[in-house]
Amino acid sequence: xxxxxxxxxxxxxxxxxxxxxxxxxxxxxxxxxxxxxxxxxxxxxxxxxxxxxxxxxxxxxxxxxxxxxxxxxxxxxxxxxxxxxxxxxxxxxxxxxxxxxxxxxxxxxxxxxxxxxxxxxxxxxxxxxxxxxxxxxxxxxxxxxxxxxxxxxxxxxxxxxxxxxxxxxxxxxxxxxxxxxxxxxxxxxxxxxxxxxxxxxxxxxxxxxxxxxxxxxxxxxxxxxxxxxxxxxxxxxxxxxxxxxxxxxxxxxxxxxxxxxxxxxxxxxxxxxxxxxxxxxxxxxxxxxxxxxxxxxxxxxxxxxxxxxxxxxxxxxxxxxxxxxxxxxxxxxxxxx
Length: 337
What we know:
- This protein has ten helices and 15 strands.
- Helix 2 (about 45-55) crosses helix 8 and helix 7 crosses helix 9 (about 290-300).
- It is of the alpha/beta class.
- The protein starts with a strand and ends in a 23-residue tail after the last helix.
- It has helices spanning about 10-25, 45-55, 105-110, 155-160, 170-175, 175-185, 205-220, 275-285, 290-300, 310-315; strands at about 1-5, 35-40, 60-70, 75-80, 90-100, 120, 140-145, 170, 195-200, 225-230, 235-240, 245-250, 255-260, 265-270, 305.
């Protein structure tokens, strides 16, 4: 059920929510947190609400959407309440703020927060420079951003590093869970050798690739190189260099990976690219600071950017002259794109 409340106030919204609970028998006692979604009003707002609805089936919550509209309009608050089948296992309150009111999102959110429950703020697209100092971010125990959804993902990741505060996290980090688990488990098998170097290859604008290289640097205490992939989506390949042979994890199609290591047969593993819904649900499982993410952010500066080897670089050396005859000329290898 969807109820529209044009040109309304937060007190009128609260009154309508109480009436809906009395009429339908619903209760807020089963809500475990308040999720505040901050975005610009537009078509992408519904996509964020859908992801929150799916995640709420695992974490029943009240979802408050702050959709900031035209700044040049007269100050106005249009609200929409979604319950039942249109809200998953939550109750959704969409606040569309216009004019000067668009700058007062925190003031509009505070009267609608569930009492005695944690608050999580989520910026699904463009996030503030310092989420912890944002008025809405200051209300939250956890602050979720997504560097991959911004115009310049790598620059956004550097901004996260510069302005990190306990409680911050990013969905670019959450997308690494399967990769981290697979790489950690591969090192539990013999031979138990120290990793000498790590190489991570992925799309040039993939912040998850940078974070994975930084995590390996921090955890393994080894130098890590980050290469730009010529094909594939997101993270494409990870290679851990060891004396007896490399551990390799290759995912060229964004769905299935191949794990190879010395003395073991190649194994195909599920490495499907994770949806926003799955990543959001995972982040809502914890409300304490993520120290591992913080350490990976600090190690970003230690990652070196490497050049993807070309066909010319990999061409074998010319054979030595024999019997005084010069070696035959070889055609120049063309660098792969």
